[in-house]
Amino acid sequence: MKKVFHVVIAVAALAAAVPAMAQFQKPEDAVKYRQSSFFVMAQHFGRLGAMASGKAPFDAKAAADNASVVEAMSKLPWAGFMANTESVKSGAKPEMWTEKAKFDQGAEKLQAEASKLAAAAKMGNLDALKTAFADTAGTCKACHDNYKAK
Ligand code: HEC
Q1: Looking at ligand 1, which atom is closest to the CA of residue 78?
Q2: pLDDT one-digit tens code per residue, 93-124
Q3: CA 31 to CA 52: how far, in whole Å?
């Protein structure tokens, strides 16, 4: 009984901690968080790109590992685009805020393609990886063209 009680407390504490994770001490932290998430995602995405383009030898295990990091990271940057970060200097174009619904659609598109990329990478097939990589890269470019400063 005592054990069950402890589990209940632990779960309740976890549930309470989740909304707090989406908050930041200050707007600058939110910006740093989203930029860092993009940075890490891009590192792993680049390793897949090297394999897809033949610059690096295809390694099925490495491809699957990198793609699952990309998939996980693709979910993170968005929490950092909070309204109170609009005035913080960053690589986000002002249009991002006036076209937030379109921006959010782009974020969802990336997450959907990153999931397909992770699934394709697990197949251990270079052609499947190439296709999924190109589809995912298309979502990066579409959003950057509109909403990321050069
Ligand atoms: C829905 C829009 C959107 C999508 C999709 C998107 N990005 Fe970005 N990305 C941005 C914006 C906006 C910034 C600028 C963020 C800032 O400076 O606060 C950015 C910044 C970056 C940065 C710079 C981070 C830094 O160090 O400051 C990298 C690298 C990056 N993105 C890579 C990618 C890659 C790779 C993909 C696809 C796999 C991708 N992004 C998909 C909107 C997007």
Answers
A1: 1
A2: 999 999 999 999 999 999 999 999 999 999 99
A3: 31
